[in-house]
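Make up an example, fold above all:
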Amino acid sequence: MTVEPMDPVLTGPSTTVAGPATPAAPARRRSTRWPASRWAKFIPMAILIVLAVTGPWWVPFDPEKVIGGASIAPGGDHLFGTDASGLDVFSRVIVATRTNLLIALTVAVLATLIGCVFGLLIGMNESSRGPLGFVARACGRAVDLTEAVPAVLTGLVVVSFFGASATTLTGIMSVILSPIQIRLVRTEVLRVRNDAYLDAARMAGLSEFGLTVRHVLPNSAWAALQNMSVIFAVSIIVTAALGFIGVGLPPPAPEWGSMLNAGAGDVISGRWWAAAFPALFLFFAVAAAALASQAIFGKRRTAR
């Protein structure tokens, strides 16, 4: 006789006991440590900083004093040779590192400060009615017009009136390059000023000044801070360009651009070293700034 299988509904609940649950694998914490490859990107800039800080103390010759024959090839007592005036190229290139980096760093800081202040004021007030809004919109249009004027041309005109010195060049380039930062901060202010959390802060009784300082500025200035490396590199190039065309720091002050200007005419005759080594350091400084910026802001830029 065939026995029919019993309905599981009629037989009641199963008496099978489940085994112990397997514990979930713990979530892997994201490491905040930087890999060695990221730290390595700071090495070129670290080398330049060490040269800028310590170089004037140990260079073998006075960078502004004629110490030997003209256009001596690299080697012997003159590692990078001498230029057409008999100045030691190695000593001048090393000491010029301090000059160029100090100007570039000061310009980057000042241009960023100017950009944060004016970008914040323009972005917060250009949609307002009345005189304040009119002034903010006029300033915004003036900043936009600066895109049509090359920085080197503006620097050339201004230096011709005020003369060339480290202080003058720093002040001029800080003003010339600040519109880049102003536009960045203004764009970020326009993006964040109408966010919902700002409305909540207003409803909580926070004043417009407190709202701007506590919420808008921190969220808008980050773009300008990221862009400081670009301002740093551009100021190095502009300083060298002004020196190359003869309106930079007056000789015999060591500066990469003026050294390029002095040595460019000797390249054709085979005396390449007076121009090659300043050009090499100039390229190295710009590349070092780019690598350091990538190491600091690379992941954050990707995340955004």
The chain has one domain: 38-58+79-303. The radius of gyration is 30 Å.
